[in-house]
Design a protein that fits this description.
The longest helix is centred in the middle third of the chain and has 59 residues. The chain is about 60% helix and about 0% strand. The protein has a domain of about 70 residues. It is mainly alpha-helical.
Length: about 120
């Protein structure tokens, strides 16, 4: 084949169009990434909106139950349950009660008394 025929054998100039293919690929990938992130934003927004609705419903339910909780935990209701025998009260023995005094000076404190602990270093 002559040299002249080989030069025109490939009519499609690949070398001249390759930068445009690269630019088109970058734009395509960038556009698809933008659409993906936009869809994620919309999806997360819907999830947050649903969770906010659930939070409002829970708060409404809690507010509706507060009077009932207050009524059931009042002194008269607890006394009524105690009278029925539903709950029991066990008296605390005197030897099980510990009294702590933080206002007592250290000089007058007894040896067997519980005292507040300080972070001062012990000198040896």
């Amino acid at each position: 084949m002559s040299r002249n025929r080989r030069r025109h054998a490939n009519p499609f100039p690949m070398r001249a169009l390759s930068p445009w293919f690269v630019i088109a690929a970058i734009l395509l990938i960038g556009g698809m990434t933008w659409v993906y992130f936009k869809n994620q934003l919309v999806t997360r927004g819907r999830e947050i909106k649903d969770m906010e609705k659930q939070l409002v419903e829970l708060n409404t339910g809690i507010e509706a139950l507060r009077p009932k909780i207050a009524a059931l935990s009042s002194r008269t209701a607890l006394q009524h349950r105690l009278d029925e025998g539903v709950i029991q009260m066990i008296p605390i023995r005197q030897d099980r009660i510990v009294q702590v005094s933080f206002n007592q000076p250290a000089e007058t404190a007894q040896v067997n008394e519980i005292r507040a602990v300080s972070n001062e270093r012990i000198s040896r």
